[in-house]
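Bit of a strange request maybe. I'm writing a small parser for structure token strings and I need a real example to test against, not something I typed by hand. Could someone generate the tokens for this chain?
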Amino acid sequence: MSVKTVKLHRNEGWFQQTLQGQAFAKQSLRNDAWDIQGGVTLDLPTETIPASFYATLRDFGDKTAFTFIDRRFSYREYNTLSNRVAHALMARGIEPGDRVAINLPNLPQYLIFMLGALKAGCIISGVSPLASADEIHSQLKDLGASALISFDDVYANNVQALVPSLPALKLVVVTRPLDLMPGPIRFLARLLKKLPFPTITFVDRREVWFREFCAKQPAADVQVSRLASDVAAIQYTGGTTGKSKGAMLTHGNFLSNIRQSIAVTAPEIGKEVGLSILPFFHIAGLTAALNTIVIGGAWLLVPNPRDLNFIVRQLKKYRPSLIFAVPLLYEKLLLRQDFRALDFSSLKFAMSGAAPMSDALKKQLEAVLRVQVLEGYGMTEASPGISLNYPGRVRANTVGQALPDTEVKIVAIDGEHELGPYEEGQLIVAGPQVMAGYWNNAAETQIALRMHQGKTWLFTGDAARIDQDGYITIVDRLKDMVNVGGYKVYSVEVEAVIALHPAVLSCAILAEPDKQQSTELVKLVVQRATEYSERDEAELTGDILHYCREKLAAYKVPHSIEFIETMPLTPIGKVDKKALRAYLRSKQSGVK
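Reply from user aminoacidic:
Good idea to test on real output. This should exercise your parser:
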């Protein structure tokens, strides 16, 4: 099959898709003969992220770039503020290639510091504000971070004490969440105690307040020479199955993934308004923010994803054309009548990521939104997009087809020979969005990136199958798979069945060793629904096991069930099995 080409360019209107290209992309999505390896090739980017931003600025300088608590920031203001950050970084001795860590929630300061650091030629790295002090220290030390920005509450409680043990840090910037809001709003918020306002005494010459840091810096554009092949971000993996690793993602990786998304979703350049609940320190949130820059879109910032009242108010007032969230958040929103009553007529589609969405939840959500909910699949190591259920081509219980310019294959779990349609094995991926490797970790890089048939492939560690039309179904993380007497039990499949039991609010399948034989047993961990919280555990265990025997093959039925008060989740709402295993080990040993 011949591979057709869509060329995305920014001549005379800067990255506007040609009318011919845009029409072709839409036509191809309706073509049943769509090539299962992607079907469209795109020009590889030669520019950097700052160059893309400056081009958007030329066309959309006065347009809103993002909105924070009803304060609108235009692209022109975004440029000025990020230029000041870039100049301030350079004035403090931060050089191209230095790592700049951003330990913030979704505040304007995140976007401004991110872009300023990239303009100065630095490498950015998001650090979760929800991480423990030990986790933050480990990441900053591994990075060899030269600069760090954090916000007052987290800095006072988790970060400031770490600074003396991080000699590589040349600069520590501390911000208040409302630093970029008008003075009266900052005053009222403090007076009414709307936010924590910790007293922080600086004891290290490297520490500086954000407002002081940017003050008196020039607003002139900064254009440090960098290449598309240079690393833009070191983004750490979630670490839900093992030690977190820093994926080195280049400017070209990000821009390629953005172009792949544009070719599939065909946004209206300069007109889209998006609301994403995914944090910028997570790869999907970061790429979404960069995507918005490229298409000249507007972003509605959600600093606290638990504040559902705020989210509903933003949806009502700004009526975005795109919503991007995780299944858990959609589920919580659907319980609210004010959300269900909103006018979603401006919405083009909703996207869901980070965890599988059940068919029941998807149907409920689509009935309220009256648009398609698109699920896809990605990894930090792939910037992150690998596949998507294309608009108009959604297939249930799959994560869609490979993005343009992306090749996917299934190879045997215990080898590298390729498998055919519907056969289950390890998913491997090749494409321009695949990382350059892991930071300071050659051994893990060799495991993840391997030569196969003369090309470098990313071995995902995910068990999957691909049907004859190229639709991918993820069946499990290989590390989460349970081997019961030679039979493979995929946790994703079993969890989806058990989650339908009315007593189960959340569940996770783990492997536990069989003490009698050299095999594994299926262990089920359950967080009970509220209405079942007082039910006798032995009785409830029997009820759930009876349900499992009716719905699952015998070797998939749990050998044991353990009830837990709260299921540990990652910052984006995915069950954190690493934390769950650690909790169960500590409980078993009597450590609290």
